[in-house]
């Protein structure tokens, strides 16, 4: 239920409407029932008081006008008073008691006439003393009447009205009239019941109406949400229906305008991306053809360098070297452009990582020998099988090795191969000049060099690590680096055994994860 | 007599430079600057081998390759600036025997040309495989008495497989024996040419009986 409220605007709106109207209807119903009850009571009371007053005057006059002087006649007269005043209708029951005021001199000679079924306990002593001191006025008090009907004790509201009466010869008496208000109570009950049923029905109707209204309001928003979802999923030409002039039509129009502009931008970007790929392809062809001529010419000169005089010979050698470098640079640029254009697809197959590491080391060995670096390999004896593009991974490892040799200052280079349940890893570590934290942060940036003032000895392009990182990402792997100034650097490549699975932990650990190290 | 090489390339400097390299390696070059004249030049010159640039003005290299293949089995080496998979496969499917990616070194160019011109060396005069008879001396393949026309490369590929029936050749072995590569090369060369060969000799190329694939390893004949 809470979840529904959280997720659905409509449910929230309906619930709020129902709750608020519930509170208001309850308050209104309470007020109505209270004032109706009050009105009924007041009307009845006024009637009762009027009746009572006339009854009292009647009784008083009866006694005053009588000229009885013996007890028997007085008792008879007294007894006639009560039935005269009584009424026993269901709707309008009235019972009477004529009670002698206590504490008078002389004994009570006469029997107090009391209506049958009237419990004089209902007339409280406090009320009686108030009546005695009322100086002839008619007083009233609300009481609870209880009577037994069909074996069930029922309680109904009532009013007792009292007034002192002076009876010749007999002394002070009090006349009490007890009125039953159960018919008023019944009316009030009925009114309250009607109000309750009406209120509940009203709340229910309001809930229904608000559901209909909100669903009518929410529907366009729902449709807009669905259309947005479709657009997000790539259906760029889906639009909302624009109908009418209201705020919903404005929403639809703005939404469609936004979708149009989005579609234009995306189409433009797509064409730019296509142009970019086209450009890469064109550059590839246009640069490669002249480079081929240059390379062929340079190579012929280089082959014939022994027949040239020393100046020309050195020139031929420099030309040859730089053509090679230019070619590598061009290849790296094209490779990174291909990545930027998203045009790279890995040729995935199951390979033995040990074998690929071996091939990379074999191809870099001449450079290592040249720089006096030995390469020490620690690897498991078994095949380390994983799914990867061997050409790219070999190139990546070659690049890491070339970096280690270049910055390793002739110290031994350590290569470690590791494997666990879900991943394989290779780390390449040197003990050379290392890097600072600031340098580490930029190590994968394009054309960035650890030390611009350093001579470029091995002719790297400055794109090697950027491409290595792209190659790693292509495989869903990780390329981590640790380095410390004057302590060397360590690169660790981790690849998932099966493409598309997540690497939980690299099989190899980097030298130390203290604050001098950094991850990429 | 020096082998004749037809160089079809639109870039004047490169054409001339390739010519210089070829001449100094003992070949006789002839040039053609665009695709439209290529077939006429080919017929007039009757080269022993064609160097063909993929991107040409007019007719492109792929179309020229297909035209030449229609009339002759002369070895064709594509010169390509593109390393994208589709371009290379398209060229090979059009009938090119081999390809060289620009920029290349003179030694690579001459080595690849020599590998393609090297005569098949075998002591046997005829080899039988399935319904086929390979006439090594006459460079002919007979199937049930009917001659099938294969390019020299296809003939060489089939002969290599047929000389050792049942033996499985890996793609790398075939690259070395047939194409003359002594280092790791593009195994797509083998795949594409096996497909071309099958389309000529098999009853149902999709369900080959003569040259069969050994999954994960390579190919074998018989």
Automatic annotation (TrEMBL), chain B:
CDD domains: REC_OmpR_MtrA-like (cd17626), trans_reg_C (cd00383). GO terms for biological process: positive regulation of DNA-templated transcription. One of its GO terms (molecular function) is phosphorelay response regulator activity. Keywords: DNA-binding, Phosphoprotein, Transcription, Transcription regulation, Two-component regulatory system. GO terms for cellular component: cytosol; protein-DNA complex. It holds the Pfam family Response_reg. Residues 4-117 form the Response regulatory domain. This is DNA-binding response regulator MtrA. PANTHER family: DNA-BINDING DUAL MASTER TRANSCRIPTIONAL REGULATOR RPAA, REGULATOR OF RPOS. Residues 124-222 form the OmpR/PhoB-type domain.
